[in-house]
Structure formats: C-alpha cells, structure tokens
C-alpha cells in the first residue's frame, strides 16, 4: 500500500511540473505566432519559433515518458495517449493531462487485489 502512495505522490509531482511547462507553452506559442503572422510559419522560422521549439519538445518528451513509464495504464491506452500528444500538440497535452479524480481511480486498488 505504501508503494502505491509513493508512486502516486511521485506522479502528482511530475504532473505539476508538466502543468507548469504547458502553461509556458500555452503562452509562448500564441505570442510567437502573432509576431510571425505576416508570413507563413515555414517561410519565416526565426528566433521566436526556436524558443517555442526549445520549450515545447522537452515538455512533449516528458509527457511521453510519464505516459509510458509511470502511469498505470494498459498498452492500448498508452498508444492512444501517445497519438493524442503527438498529433494534437499543446491541445493534446491539455486533453491528456489526468486530473485528480482520474489519478485516484488509477491508483485505487481493484477488487481482485483486495482478496
């Protein structure tokens, strides 16, 4: 039981870190797109978008690591979450982020383990 509580507290700490990174990305991405709004993003890939890349990709990798290594999910759920994170970008990160109720359900011992 202590291992479950320890794992859940570690995961909650990781999720808090991810949430901070997602707030930073949620602010930086629109700002960078507004400043680069004159031309298509492909043509004008300047410093603003490099900053977004340096903040977005580490948060994405951290989310994927947490999804595959830490969260107690089935393999099909992990695959679905991976596609959600990669394809939808920052919106996918906000959709993927488990809330407190979902975390409690993940770490709640099932009836099979009790008996």
Helix segment tally: 6
Q: How many strands in all?
A: 0
The proportion of strand residues reads under 5%
Gyration radius (Cα, Å) is: 17 Å
Q: Helix share of residues?
A: over 70%
Q: Structural class of the secondary elements? A: mainly alpha
The low-confidence parts are 111-115
* Sequence of secondary-structure elements: HHHHHH
Question: What sort of overall outline do the alpha carbons produce when their principal axes are compared?
Answer: elongated
Characterize the biggest β-sheet: none
How far apart lie the N and C ends? 14 Å
Overall mean pLDDT score? Answer: 79
Total separate domains: 1
Task: Explain what you see.
The structure is a single chain. With 115 residues, the protein is mainly α. The chain has one domain. Helices cover 79% and strands 0% of the residues. It contains 6 helices and no strands. It has helices at residues 2-35, 47-70, 75-88, 90-96, 100-107, 111-114. α1 runs antiparallel to α2. The two termini are 14 Å apart.
